[in-house]
Amino acid sequence: MNEDLLERAASAVRERYDGGSDRAALTEAHVLSAFDRKNRRRNRLPLVAIPLLAAMLATVAWGTVSGNLRARLRAIGGAHPTSKPLTAKASSASPLVSKQRLVGPAPEASTQQPMLAAPSSGRSRRTPVIAKSGPRQLLTASPSESEIDALYRAAHHEQFAGGTPAQALLLWDRYLAVAPNGSMSPEARYNRAIALARLGRKGEAATALEPFARGEYGGYRRTEAESLIEVLRPRPLP
Amino acid sequence: MNPWYSTRTVTGEFAPPHIEPAPNLFLVALAAGEPRALSAAYHEHHRAVRAFAQRLLGDESAAEDMVQEAFLALPGAVRRFRGDTSLRSFVIAVAVNHARHFVRAAARRRKHVSRLALEPATPVSLPDELLSREQLSQALFRALDALSLEQRVAFVLCVVEERASHEAAEIIGAPAPTVRARVQSAKKRLRELLEEGGFR
Question: Which of A7, A10, A19 sits opposite B47 (nearest CB)?
Fold first, then answer.
């Protein structure tokens, strides 16, 4: 009896729904248009992706060749322990100056006072941690990059943030001893020359500035060096 | 190496290697998303797929959506088609794979409608015999909503559509004994539910 009931119910459903629909043609149109859209999206993907990829590769290649990529990656990485002197020096300067250095081709310290003027009052007075610990503790047998960075910061602080020229000279010498060809060595050499001039060692200062005046560092501090040499070594009157 | 000697049966005899049949150009075109192939497949099989969807869901609107979904998924799915079954069974299998969401939606809608009584339970102008069949069919769908999807699909394929268990097994992708067991348990539960609904 129950089996008949179930059979009758199934039969009722079977007869009621036979697959016919007045929306069949509409559904077909929907299927075809949806699939067409899907195909078009799939075909458009390479047209967008390939130029995008090419642009990215070109940017990376250009960045690698010009050296800007490294600087930018360092900037993104922030004050990583293994960061290079560029980041370290930037951290000692004002934020505006730091940005300029990171994006510019020449990593020079625009915060420096090129002439024999007194240290700038607008510069940060924050004393680097390592500088507080004393310059004698700044060198180890084989200093790491972070130690070299700290040494640069200490020298920079000593020269421009209320230290003495003698101490600054000592620190610049130490820095150049451990990183003679470091990425910040031109700045260190120029600042060392300034320190010598402040100490009254005019001859040595002029000698130290000569490579800059000759253009051995490109246009970097060339004009300032020429002017300083004029002051330090006055030409004899004819 | 001679391919005839590349395979050896369990008994040690050499057997001819399995040779892949030539690809069916229609299926290749369908898999590539060729609109004419998709249109041809739709014209050939939409009625069977729609009938199954309607009988599974008891809701013509939801069934139409399910048909659309099945045919949209067909070009991607047909790459797995090996020709072991008919293409019609394969398309229905694709529909079964997309059924869960539609079954839930149809059941939800039915529950909602019955709770609010927005629609009359039966068209009152029908003669007694037809009235009884309509009531029976609606009662069956309400009872089907109480089953699991697996039992529901097995019941619709084997009882409503009167397919053989091996054919239903191919569509479902389960062994035939499993399908038969699902049908038996579905019948038992449906009988109970129909009796609870006052049908004898």
Answer: A19
